[in-house]
Please model this.
Amino acid sequence: MLLTLGAAWQLAAGADQTWDQVRPPAPFWAGLWLFGACAMDMLDGAVARVGNLKTAFGGILDSTMDRVSDIAIFGAIAIAFGRVENVTFQVLALLAMTNAVLISYIKARAEKELDDCSVGFWQRGERLVAVMLGCFLGHVATMVLILAVLPWTSVAGRLALCYRKLEGAKRQPNGGASGKAEMSLALKRRTWPHTLFAAAVAVTIIAVRIRPFNLSDLIR
Model:
């Protein structure tokens, strides 16, 4: 959590900076902080499992800190674009934050009723990789635009899965479509569609540098 807050501090100071400057931009340092945070995020669960230290509250605390981390990162980006009076990318950062929170919330709530709701490409790992790529390359605007526009498909996909499984169970004795059939519709990890889409997202963030724009200026 502390490492993520360090990344958020850097982003709030200059998420709009790129490698046009001589020195590394603020997002680059944020990427380093985030890399350390991701390493710790993987390590804490491994330590808990190896040492038989898993607890119910520990899982709740871990999930809560993940949500706080998402809010801190995109909130910091919104602050940075607010400092340069770019309302368009402020809103996009808040939309990206909303997508991140909703994707995780729907899964947590749905799994009170279903065995699994891990559908959709934009799980937390994929979102974090996109954020780090955008930070290291100084392409934060490109990353924000992608995370504001595309992850709603995972939000919609998870809601659709819940509707089909739960409402289908009321109408059909066997509970509607099988779990395997439902999961086959998702971009599951370690499958070629997932790998192909992940590569396309990565290439886009690497190759395309969007300059932050204001829709009001374009309209005028």
About this structure: The chain is about 75% helix and 0% strand. The chain has one domain: 2-219. The chain has a mean pLDDT of 88. The CA atoms of residues 53 and 154 lie 32 Å apart.
